[in-house]
Amino acid sequence: MNPLLLLLLIPIAAIAAILWLPQICPKRITVTAFIVNFVISLGLFFQFEPGHGYHWVLKYPWFHLTNVAQINFHLGVDGISLMMIFLTTLVSLTAAWVTSKKVKRAREFFIYVLLISLGALGAFLSRDLFFIYIFHEFALIPTFLLIGIWGGQNRQFASIQMTLYLALGSLILLAGIVGLVLTQPLDSRSFDLEAIQQIHVIDDGVQKVIYPLLLIGFGILISIFPFHSWAPTGYASAPAAAAMLHAGVLKKFGLYGLLRLLLPALESGADYWRPVLLVLIIGNVFYLGYVTMAQKELPLMLGYSSVMHMGYLFLALASHHLVALTGFVLLMVAHGVSAALLFALAGEFQTKTGETRIASFGGLYTHAPFLGIMFLIGSMASIGLPGLANFSGEVLIFFGSFKSLPWVTVVCVWGVVISAVYQLRAVRLICFGTVSEVTAKLVDLSTYSARFPYLLLVAVSLWIGINPQSVIHLVQPCIESILNVGGR
Amino acid sequence: MIAWLILIAPLLSALLILGGLHRSKIFSQGVSIAACLISFAISIGFFTGSIGAPESLIWIELPGFKSEIGILIDPLSKLMLLVVTGVGLMVHLFSVGYMHEDEGVSRFFGKLSIFMFSMIGIVVSTNLVQMFIFWELVGLSSYLLIGFWFQKPSAADAAKKAFLVNRVGDFGFLLGIIFYWTLAGTVFFGAEAALAIKSHIGVEIPYLNITMVTATGLLLFCGCMGKSAMIPLHVWLPDAMEGPTPVSALIHAATMVAAGVYMLCRVFVVLSISAQTLEVILYVGAVTAFAAALIATQQNDIKRILAFSTLSQLGYMVMAIGLTSPGVEFPSTSMFHLTTHAFFKAMLFLGAGSVIHAVHHEQDIWKMGGLWKKLPWTFGTFFLGVLALTGFPGLSGFFSKEEILTLAYHRSGTVLVIASITAGLTAFYMMRLLIVAFFGVARSPQAANAHESPKVMIIPLVILAILTVFAGYPFIGIQESLGAVGTHEASHFVLYLSLGVMTFGYLIAILLYRGQGFEPIYTRVLANKFYVDEFYDRVLLRVQQGFAIGMDFIDQWIIGFVFVRGTSLLVNLTGEVLRLVQSGSLQGYAFFFCAGVVGLVYWMLKGF
User: What is the ipTM of this complex?
Assistant: First the structure.
């Protein structure tokens, strides 16, 4: 059986199992399914032969809209989607694992988590824009429900705000995608990704219109400045699993889409809109960096920080440079891992203590050393300490972007200082010092089973940080082909 | 393969100790010391030439950008490796005694191993990216060790401060590396890269009246300013004394803080292309040397005095780099002083540790006194250290300091004046420390009941004392290993000048402090370190936090408000519409949302 199809069928099977076998613990079913998926994605990773083109391709014609376009159910992975699949299965597994099996309405909860994972996997596996879009919507809806039903403070407001923002983004995106499809000649029009990537001549005027639609459409999902307001409040009130999956995986879908569509097809649109994009990047890194510094609640701080780091990724997109774009893929994975780790910890703190203010913690090293060390490692990863994955991505982005965008790159490098300020302050207040009343309510994770998801995330971050080349040699040919199509 | 053990041994030791062996104190100590011993043995192998450099491992390889993890063996790294692992070994031994009663002893040795791993990584770097990686990792180990007593608020704050101030320096350093790569097309060290950079000599940066080459040098120097604590980024080093004293000896005196100087020596061929760069380096070094010495005269904490003295000596080394004439491969004078300073300053810090240990963690020199009789070994070695630091003839510090002064004499009169005054101040504050802490009467019960430290602490002191005495003589071979130290003719004028200011400093200190029980010449501005910390805390940090709060306000009330108002209008509208549907459950909403999207897609497609 095609392994890619298997990746999609396993969550579906797990949902069926939860629905029809109520006597089995839904967490157990979900985690088992995600373990299988993670193992499959590891298998794919080790089987993958780097090079151009797609592997394990599966293609069924679905239907042909007369006079519009051919739509296919078309799966396949290249180096970039492979890494995204790996990230999705990893974060899904850890997100399900850290969730308590006694969560209220457990069956529904885990079904939604499975749906998110299914949607994200489908979006990253599909080679057809129609399915990419549908799968992505499919993943978003359960996220709103997770926040609306299981969220913390302000959950109604947060989930409605998030729904409206993201729905708006989706609509703009849809308009952009439709526009992109329509630029193809009528007789060979299709939603196929390759076909769209090979459109050679899109009229400059049309590019100028489509580019901002895609940028903002995907951008809202990635929380580009100034459309970011939904993200921090959304993450702050989301249950840990939802925040991990959204910040870790779904956001990356937007970036993935930009990489696939924006770069190859819309060269002159990118040139025209670049000054605007640069301003938005500075907004993300510099302005939102300082906003992050003013946050007093941990989930809000992490939410803003995750928004801020998106600026580096936009910088890579704006630079059109091979080195920067390779760093882009590394940082997508790295940020997904570190965000998942930090949101998992924040969730653990919040569920056990009911407290979110950073200053009310203290003495975590003394009281719960494992959690303390994990928080330290997550923070260090997030501020780009070498040896952990984020550094290798960030440093490549800075190097690659400097030649064409020197000044904006300098501002972004300053972001490294900004993030150290707020993140180390959090470490200082939470981990150091004497044990506070709030911290005393926490229980350190002592069993291997409870520690496993955290250690898994740290291990992946270390692996990519120490040996980035093992990812780069998979990604580089794909980036080259994207740039060759666009760069000409 | 055996060469890699120099990095693998301490790394493995750290992993073993922090990963599970920490339950056994003795085992942790043993593993950590053994790892350090292996690294030391391999360093000797490198030095004698019996072990060669291994093949590098690729870290990142992309068209146009390549970085690897490798081991570079040349005169510079050979000597530095010996210093790092040798002093490291002494500090490891000393810590066995010093940390004996601490509960976290295993954790301490584990972190020490992380430090050894990262520091060796800096020294053997073949390229700037590798150096930056290990550069940040020593920053991490310094952070962990300063904050070793993490329950103590002052230690926790000091750790954070050290990391952040270094980050500011590293901001410049990273940009410097990016500039270097932009000009040279590579991040590797070497003459070819320097030639490539030289070919860009005329290229100016738009809007700034500075060439790319000068900017590259200055940005790289930023890294040194952070790590080697040059003014104005010096504020973290005195606070770093919150860490255990062996850490202060190894990291914040002998090795890590010298990494900035080492890095400048590595890229000297690039720095020396631009005369302006060297001039900035020269004056930053000179000002740091002078101002830190001035502050040191009014400190009362034994470790802080030594910390400011370290700052001052680092300023000397950096100044020596600025004085070196372009064309040489690396500034051997500066490296020579780095080496001798590593020995005697590590010894002074360990001696201070021995004193602190003996007087039950009292660090105020005014609460000591009369210790020379009770701590004969500590006093003896400390006394030698003071003499060496102040440049007493015949000791290692004399030779290296003399070289720097000679260099200054030949190249810049102003600098010679600053350097000589600094030397006089050094003699003054070290003699003050010696008199107040070791002579006179005991001024506290702890000082009266002090006992000499155990052998495991004394032996490292004695070994370092031997090095302190002999390291400067040519037969030891340090100068020889550096090529030619002191290409300039030694001058009698410089000799008399330095002896003169030293004696003057001694005399003033003896006259002022002999038999005193309190500070006779209290100078507020010096005791408060020129209020630089206050300025940073009250002005810079507040402005920054105020800026952050302002940004947050804008985000909540302008960006949030506009959009949120829009959203809440939309929410009401949606509510009205959905009321017609009367579903009432979130699942219902979701269904309609989904159906709506699908319908919309279909409708849009149909339309075309």
Answer: 0.94
Q: Which residues contact B144 (CB under 8 A, 6 or more apart)?
A: B111, B114, B159
DSSP string computed for B468-490: HHHTTSGGG-HHHHTS-S--SPP
Highest averaged pLDDT of the listed ranges A324-338, A357-371, B354-368, B485-499 = A324-338
Cα–Cα distance measured from residue B203 to residue B214, given in angstroms and rounded to the nearest whole number: 10
User: From CA A40, how far away is CA A121, in angstroms rounded?
Assistant: 12
The nearest CA of chain B is from the CA of A472 a distance in Å of 8
Q: Is B563 on the interface with A (CB under 8 A)?
A: yes
Instruction: Tell me how far the alpha carbon of residue B520 is from its chain's centroid.
Output: 33
Residues of chain A contacting residue B605, judged by C-beta atoms under 8 Å apart:
65, 68-69, 178
Q: Quick one: pLDDT at residue B539? A: 83
DSSP A206-267: HHHHHHHHHHHHHHHHHT-TTS-THHHHHHHHS-HHHHHHIIIIIHHHHHHHIIIIIHHH-H
Domain boundaries, chain A: 3-486
Vertex A408, ends A331 and B278: CA angle to 5°? 105
The residue ranking higher by pLDDT, A272 or B581, is A272
Tell whether the model's pLDDT for residue A486 goes beyond 50: no
A279–B contact, CB cutoff 8 A: no
Closest Cβ–Cβ partner in B60, B567, B570 for A469? B60
Chain A residues touching B571 at Cβ < 8 A? 160, 164
* Cα B231 → chain centroid: 13
Nearest neighbour of B58 by CB, restricted to A134, A417, A469 = A469
If one compares B325 and A124, the residue with the highest pLDDT of the two is A124
Helices and strands per DSSP (H, E), number in chain A: 23, 2
DSSP string, A289-300: HHHHHT--BHHH
Helices (H), A76-154: 79-98, 106-125, 129-150
* Least confident window among A247-256, A290-299, B398-407, B485-494: B485-494
Q: Residue B390 in 3-state DSSP? A: coil
Phi-psi region of B231 (alpha: psi -120 to 50; beta: other; left: phi over 0): beta
Query: Residue A287 corresponds to which tokens in the numbers above?
Result: 């302005």
- Indicate the residue of A67, A145, A433 with minimum beta-carbon distance to B153: A433
Looking at residue B608, what is its pLDDT? 44
Question: Among B333, B494, B526, which residue's Cα sits nearest to residue B428?
Answer: B526
pLDDT tens digits, one per residue of B564-581: 656 666 666 766 665 665
Identify the sign of the CA torsion A341, A345, A346, A348: positive
CB-based contacts of B191-198 (< 8 A; 24+ apart in sequence): B191/B269, B193/B270, B194/B269, B194/B270, B194/B273, B197/B270, B197/B273, B198/B273
- pLDDT per residue as tens digits for the range B402-458: 989 998 998 888 999 999 999 999 999 999 999 999 988 888 888 888 888 888 899
Q: Which residues of A237-270 are buried (b: 16+ CB within 10 A; e: fewer)?
A: bbbbbbbbbbbbbbbbbbbbbbbbbbbbbbbebb
How buried is residue B580: exposed, middle or buried, by Cβ count under 10 Å (0-12/13-18/19+)?
exposed
Cα distances from B416 to residues B271, B486, B506, in angstroms, run 22, 16, 20
| Cβ atoms of residues B83 and B204 within 8 Å | no
Q: Which residue has the tokens 């590797």?
A: B188
Query: For residue B607, what pLDDT band results from cuts at 50, 70 and 90?
Result: very low
In whole angstroms, what is the distance from residue B228 CA to residue B263 CA? 10
* A126, A138, A140, B529 from B594: Cα distances, Å: 20, 8, 10, 66
Which structure tokens are listed for B124?
A: 């053997």
Q: Give chain B's length.
A: 608
Choose among B168, B319, B302: nearest CA to B238. B302
Closest CA to B157 of B531, B536, B546: B536
- The per-residue pLDDT for A264 is 77
